[in-house]
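W.,

You were right to be curious about this one. When I first looked at the sequence I had no strong expectations either way, so I just let the prediction run and decided to look at it fresh. Below is the sequence, 341 residues in total, followed by the output.
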Amino acid sequence: MIHSDDGGSPGGLNAAALPGISASEMPLRSSPPFNDALPDKLVNGQLWHYTAARGALGILEHRSLRLGPVQMMNDEGELDYGLTLLGNRLQQRKPEIVARCPAVEAEVESIYRFARNGYVQHLYVGCASIEPESLSQIRGYGEYILGINAEVKLQLCVPEQNVDHDRTRPDPYFTRGVFVSEWRPVVYGDIKARELIDRVIDSVVAATCSDLEREQEFGRRSSLADAARMIAATQFVACAAFLKHPAFESEHEVRVLASVPIGSRVVALRPGKYGITPYVTVEAVSRERRDSLEEMSFINAVKLGPGDTDSTTALFGLERALEHLGYQLHPTLVAIPFRPR
C-alpha cells in the first residue's frame, strides 16, 4: 500500500520516478515542496461528499473513493480559470522576477506553457464540502451525502483488475513519485487566490534560479531540463486545481489531490461523462491492520436528500445496505422541501 504524505517530504513529484529516468539521473533541480502549490491544511474534520445512488453504493461497498483527472473535472473550464489567474499574476510580477534573476523569465514562461499544454505529472482530484445539507450540490451531484472523516489519512490502492497476482508484471513507478494530499479547501476568486499563487510562483522561480546558477557554474545545461520543467509545471497545475470562480463559493468545496506517475498500476479506466476516463482509488491508511469493517472506512455518517424517488423508500434501501455492508451508521433524511421533478 502507498501511504499518504503530510507534506513533510518533497511531495512525490520526484523526477527519478519519471519513465526512462533512473534514480542516478536526477535533474539539477530537486523537487520543490509540493505543499507550496496547495492551500493551507483543512482544520474542520467533518466533510460531506455528494453523489448519486450508484456512486454511493460503490464507495460504501469498497470503502474507497475514486479520484478523477484534474483535466476532466465537472465544472467546464475550471482548470483553465485557475491557470489564467496564475498566468495573469506571472505577467504582473514579471519586472520583479526579472530583477531577481534576469535569465529566469524565459524559463518560467516555458514552465507555464508546459502547464497550459498538459505536459505535467498525472494529477487526480476528489471533491467534498464542509456543507452537510447543500441544495445546490444535491441538484448538481446527487442526493446521497456521505460524511467523511478528514482526519483519516488516505492511501492509493491497486484496483482489483490491475492486481498482478503472479507478480509477473513489474511496476517500477508504484512507490516512487506518488503523493496523496490531505483534504484542502478550495480558494474562490482572484483576490483570495493571490497569496497561494504568489507562493507557488516564488517556489518555482527560486528553484529555476538555482538551476540556472548551477548550469552556469558547471558550464552546461542539464540533459534532463525538460523533466525539471515538468515538475515545476505540475506545481502550477496543482495550484490551479484548487482555484475556482467566486460564483461557486456557496459550495464550500474541499479537495484531495493525488500525483501518480505514468504507467502505474494504481490507474484504472472507466467510461465517464467525458468519454474514457482514467481514475485512481484511495482508501483509509493501513486498512489491512484494522480490526473491524467500521475502522476500515473514512465514512462516518450518511444523509439522504430529496431525489427522484420516494425518500422513505430510498431511506429503507440505504438502511438495509449499511447493515449488509457492516456499517454501524444510521442514515438521516435532509429536511429540504425540494421536489426534483
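Here's what jumped out at me. Residues 1-33 have pLDDT under 50 and may be disordered. And, maybe more interesting for your project: The CA atoms of residues 272 and 278 lie 9 Å apart.

Coffee later to discuss?

I.
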